[in-house]
Specification:
Layout lengths: L2 E7 L2 E7 L6 H8 L18 E4 L2 E4 L12 E3 L12 H8 L9 H14 L5 H7 L10 H20 L1
Helix pairs in contact: 2-5
The chain binds FE2/S2 (inorganic) cluster (2 copies).
Amino acid sequence: MTKQFDFTVNGKPVSVSLDNEETPLLNVLRNELGLMGTRFGCGLEQCGCCMVLIEGQPEKCCTKPVWSVAGKTVTTIEGLGTPTRPHPLQQAFIDEQAGQCGYCLAGILISAKALLDRNLSPTRPEIAQALDDNICRCGSHNRIMRAVEKAAAQMRAAVQL
Ligand code: FES
Ligand code: FES
């Protein structure tokens, strides 16, 4: 039987009708809502490239059933910034050329945003801890760390203006 699920994605209310309420949120974002920025990697909650914010908390959504987000707020990489108005993290990742293939970056940016939302002065160990669930096969870790530090510094400066 088809069921309807209502939730909020990137600030907009959405409603999807599905036969299977166990359909992963990742599939719904990509296939029903056309939000292709969130990646499918392992499908086993192992790589972090499907990370989204649910109620502001970073969570992998490749196995998370859609019913579990009914009534909640979801933020995907598309909700961070736009090409003309990128989030400071996105700009810093560009400035530092932090990605190589880029496949991991949507998940990493989401984890980094969750970190900076609660701590604008993270130490390197705190950044590493926040990104612990995100795998980068290209080994771009040093540039990614630098980019997060740069974004944090820029966001601190903006707060102090
Ligand atoms: S695709 Fe979800 S953790 Fe790898
Ligand atoms: S930049 Fe290629 S997996 Fe991270």
